[in-house]
Amino acid sequence: MFKQAKLEKLSEQITAMGFHPFIRDGILFVSAEYGDDAADYYGEFRGGYAWINPKLEDLAKKNNAFWEWQNPGCIGIFQ
Fold first, then answer.
1. Which residues have a Cβ under 8 Å from the Cβ of 70 and sit 6 or more positions away?
2. What whole-number distance in Å separates Cα of residue 44 and Cα of residue 64?
3. 8-61 pLDDT tens trace
4. Under 8 Å CB-to-CB from 18, ≥6 apart: which residues?
5. Where are the beta strands (DSSP E) in the chain?
6. Angle, to 10 degrees, between the axis of helix 54-62 and the axis of helix 4-16?
7. Rounded to two decimals, what is the model's pTM?
8. How many CB atoms lie within 10 A of CB 6?
9. How far is CA 6 from CA 1, 13, 22, 59, in A?
10. Whole-angstrom Cα distance, residue 22 to residue 66?
């Protein structure tokens, strides 16, 4: 798990990208429900496959982390 200071820094970076992050129970999540193109669980407009914005994928990669779907409405970043 990321330390709190790192979570806050990542949250600021994600906010600067125009997405909606939140921290809960020591995990940083990004909402997929704001219509800001952060993620699309159902992939209705992307061939039917779950999709995460490449900007978020790059951020995870740079931090030796990955995104995991918490539910259809949000993704969480994990090491």
1. 29, 76
2. 29
3. 999 999 999 999 999 999 999 999 999 999 999 999 878 899 999 999 999 999
4. 36
5. 21-24, 27-31, 39-40, 51-52, 66-71, 74-78
6. 150
7. 0.94
8. 14
9. 10, 11, 13, 13
10. 16
